[in-house]
């Protein structure tokens, strides 16, 4: 996008530079998911399926049906054998608690992810706007007859917005072993 062309609004109501930032973030997400191993994808899929409220409801209904059938089969005598029932109850409670934690955590993670994505988007937009302001100030300095015209490599570099992909690659290069 050249400095003398105003950002064009897009049909969704976002300006062109906002669309560009969204595309850059989407590209980072695509790269993240493509870099996942097959095992990671399988684990993510299983966790996604188990981390749903409907799975907890099905497990609870299954347990109720099982308890009812055992209760009916023993004519209500749940004392035989007592230790087995206690062990079973503790195991089932642990299963239900783990599933409830998983469902809750999944829901909270969705919200946190959306918040993080919005923060990243706003940071990228702020970087681009700052770069545009610096570019405009440099242009004013060059065009104003009262100001000395000189080259300022630092200002020229700051007038270019950061590329999130290049910044991430530089971070990865400087911190070997930090990515798992």
Overall description:
It is a single chain. The protein is mostly helical and 180 residues long. It has one domain. 73% of the residues lie in helices and 0% in strands. The relative contact order is 0.09. Mean pLDDT is 77; it is low at 1-7.
Q: Which of globular, elongated, flat, extended, rod-shaped describes the shape? A: rod-shaped
pLDDT < 50 runs, ≥5 residues: 1-7
* First-last Cα distance: 36 Å
Following the backbone from N to C, one meets helices and strands in this order, namely HHHHHH
Number of strands: 0
Mean pLDDT, all residues: 77
Q: In total, how many domains does the architecture comprise?
A: 1
Enumerate how many helices there are, as a single number.
Answer: 6
Largest sheet: none
- C-alpha-based Rg, rounded: 29 Å
Q: Helix proportion of residues, in percent? A: over 70%
User: So what's the oligomer here?
Assistant: single chain
Strand content: under 5%
- Overall structural class, as computed from helix and strand content, comes to mainly alpha
